Amino acid sequence: MYVWLPNQILEGLSWAHWFEDMRLKISSSQNYVLYKYLPMYFVVAHFLFATKNWMKLKYPSSDVREAYVFYVLCLIKHTFFNFSI
After folding, report:
1. What pLDDT shows up at residue 24?
2. What gap in Å lies between CA 39 and CA 43, rounded to an integer?
3. pLDDT mean over 41-59
4. pLDDT tens for residues 51-70?
5. Which has the higher per-residue pLDDT, 41 or 66?
6. 61 vs 1, 54, 73, CA distance in Å?
7. In sequence order, which ranges of the chain are alpha helices (DSSP H)?
8. Between residues 65 and 30, which one has the greater pLDDT?
9. Nearest to 48 by CA among 21, 16, 23
10. Which of 37, 40, 42 minimizes the C-alpha distance to 25?
11. Residue 60 pLDDT
12. Can you give the pLDDT at residue 75?
């Protein structure tokens, strides 16, 4: 199943992956000189996700909630009761 994500989220996920790779390299090789690069992730994440605009929350209507509950129930039924022996 393909899930559409905005480019900002995809870029943020790639930066999070980079952060974890750097953290693992530092801890495994004890190369503490690389610590100075770790704050880059937080700066980039701030510029990717911070906004000055107030976002108006839209609460789902009852139709959306009923469709979501139906989807979850179908997913549970398919996951737990649709197996082959």
Report:
1. 94
2. 7
3. 82
4. 777 777 777 666 777 777 88
5. 41
6. 25, 21, 19
7. 7-29, 39-49, 62-81
8. 30
9. 16
10. 37
11. 64
12. 77
Q: List the one residue out of 4, 79, 11, 3 whose CA is nearest residue 45.
A: 11
Mean pLDDT of 8-36: 91
Residue 42, burial from CB neighbour count under 10 angstroms (0-12, 13-18, 19+): exposed
Give the amino acid at 4. Answer: W
**Are the C-beta atoms of residues 14 and 7 closer than 8 Å to each other?**
no
Coil, strand or helix: which one is 3?
Answer: coil
Angle between helices 7-29 and 39-49 (to 10 degrees): 170
Tokens for 51, please give them: 């906004």
Cα(69)–Cα(7) distance, rounded to whole angstroms? 29
What is the rounded distance in angstroms from the CA atom of residue 26 to the CA atom of residue 56? 41
Cα 42 to the center of its chain, rounded Å? 15
